[in-house]
Amino acid sequence: MLEAKIREGILHDIVHFGLRIVIGVAFIVHGFEKFDPVFAGYMPSFGIPTEMAPLIALAEIIPGTLIIVGVLSRIASSLLATIMMGAIFVVLKASSYTGQMGYEYPLILLAANLMVIVIGPGRISLSHIIKKIPRVLQ
């Protein structure tokens, strides 16, 4: 008799859009930080060449923007989830859950990206407005 139909309601759409905005903004902000030469100086200590800083920055900024707009969200989230796994296992070495080098924040971003991969862009997205983009590419 009492069924929860949140998925079909506007609440689901607003919350999903909010999740996409938070994920996108987080990656865009962190992506722009990677253009800073100071950050590039830290990269060799993580075992990553300094020349990779602009590529990693773009790999966070472009998908972050796509997630906010709602185009190619699943592909963009897959790329960002891969980056977060690299942050957890390569940079932070999955040594401590909390603290200075803790992987708590990257793990939360990984989980949020997995949610976008599973759910898709939602109804408040450019993909939904266009309606010609195949579901796999949304």
List key phrases describing it.
138 residues, 63% helix
Mean pLDDT: 86
Write down the overall geometry: elongated
Derived from helix and strand composition plus strand pairing, the structural class reads mainly alpha
Order of helices and strands: HHHHHH
Gap from first CA to last CA:
34 Å
Main beta sheet, described? none
Oligomer: single chain
Please tell me the total number of domains: 1
Count of helix runs: 6
In helices, the fraction of residues equals: 55-70%
Would you report the number of β strands? 0
Unreliable spans: none
Membrane topology: Multi-pass membrane protein
Protein name: DoxX family protein
Main location: membrane
Subcellular location: Cell membrane
Topology:
Blueprint: H1 10-33, H2 37-42, H3 53-69, H4 73-91, H5 104-119, H6 126-130
Helix pairs in contact: 1-3, 3-4, 4-5
Transmembrane segments: 14-32, 52-72, 79-99, 105-126
Subcellular location: Cell membrane
Protein name: DoxX family protein
How would you characterize the overall build of this protein?
The chain is an all-alpha fold and 138 residues long. The protein has one domain (10-130). 63% of the residues lie in helices and 0% in strands. It has six helices and no strands. It has helices spanning 10-33, 37-42, 53-69, 73-91, 104-119, 126-130. Helix 1 packs antiparallel against helix 3. The radius of gyration is 17 Å and the shape is elongated. The chain starts with 9 loop residues before the first helix and ends in an 8-residue tail after the last helix. It is found in: Cell membrane. It holds the Pfam family DoxX. This is DoxX family protein. One of its GO terms (cellular component) is plasma membrane.
